[in-house]
Amino acid sequence: MRRNAEAEARKAAQGILGDAAREKAELMQEAVEAAARATKLQLAAEAQMARARKAAGKKTKWAARKRRWSRKFWDLMVWMALFAAIGLAASGEYKLALMVGFGPWSPLLPVCIDIYCVVAFKREKDVYPALLLMLGANITYHLATPEAQDQQLLIIAVCLMFVAVVWRVHKLMDSHGAGDDEEPETGSPAGEDAAGITGNPSGSYRSTGTGNPGSTATGNPSGNYRSTGTGNAASTGTGKPRSTGTGKPGGTGSGKRTGTAGKSGAPTAEQRAAVRARATEILRSGATPSPTALAEEFSSFGIADPEWFRNQIRAVRS
Q1: Which of 87, 125, 200, 247 could bridge across to 219 with cysteines, CB 3.0–4.6 Å?
Q2: Is 261 exposed, middle or buried (0-12, 13-18, 19+ CB in 10 A)?
Q3: Does residue 290 share a domain with residue 273?
């Protein structure tokens, strides 16, 4: 009976081992099939992603090309309007010069008046005197003609139209980035003043001292330095500190700085950083910052020179 029990036990164990081997083989086969299906799905997904990236790239390129064409077209329209208005103004100025007897030198009158107007707009100085000169020349000629009888108000209104077009077109060109065709960049602005960054090209400095005029500092020949002196009263370091800087090798320095920190009303590093940060934000949004708009937005800084704001925009783009 013992032998019979052992034989039955061995037989049952062999049956169990056989069933386990069959189940293992089935599971391995299912795993291989699942892996093959997963690989196939992965390849299909990668192909779909590649097609999607290719389509997105084409769409992005087409959109960028469309924006460039649109910008060029509207820039051309602005220039056409400007040339048409200046041509109308120049015709009246030329005929006025002929009327008063300038003879062959008559073309010089519209040349000098119109160039004066363009330069005044570009420099943002003498804008209204230049416009009045252009308007006055045209009104004078047209009112002096025999056809001007009983039409004085009409002549003045028409002359005002194209002079106003010259004025507003220049404003539009300035707000469009002064004719700059560069693509907006989204990089971090170079030369931006921040904590721990030195080398400001404008010569101003950033002080962490507490206002003791006798504090020591290490400077360089350009006048930029960073002071860590301690003093009595809290100060922003806007005075003329006495320094033992080592700006020149082998010398003790005379304490004279070439920066603008000692000048009252000069732009500070915080103001410059704020303006550049705002210009960077506008560029990242896809628009073009305007010096005039930035000057109005930061009017509380007390900086009335739009050229300074234009320099900050150039620094951000460089």
Answers
A1: 247
A2: buried
A3: yes
Structural contact between residues 241 and 210, judged by C-beta atoms closer than 8 angstroms: no
Confirm whether 15 is domain-assigned: no
Could you tell me if residue 34 is inside a domain? Answer: no
- Positive or negative torsion for Cα 146, 149, 152, 155: negative
User: What pLDDT digit, counting tens, does each position of 92-139 carry?
Assistant: 899 999 998 988 999 999 999 989 988 888 888 888 898 899 899 999
Q: Is the pTM of this model over 0.70?
A: no
Look-up of token digits 């320099």:
311
Six-digit token pair at 18?
A: 């056989």
| Residue 87 shares a structural domain with residue 145 | yes
Domain interval for residue 189: 182-196+266-318
Residue 248 host element (H or E): none
What's the number of domains the chain is made of? 2
What does the alpha-carbon distance between residue 61 and residue 9 come to, in Å, rounded to a whole number? 77
How far apart CA 235 and CA 209 sit, in angstroms, is: 7
- Token readout for 295 is 């000057």
Question: What was the pLDDT predicted at 265?
Answer: 61
Buried b (16+ CB within 10 A) or exposed e, 148-165: eeeeeeebeeebeebbeb
Tokens, residue 233: 């009263």
- The better pLDDT of the pair 58, 249 is held by 58
Q: Quick one: tokens of 223?
A: 């006048």
- Report the DSSP pairing between strands 225-227 and 217-219: antiparallel
- At 27, list the tokens: 């599971």
> Within this chain, do residues 154 and 275 fall inside the same structural domain, yes or no?
no
Residue 189 lies in a domain: yes
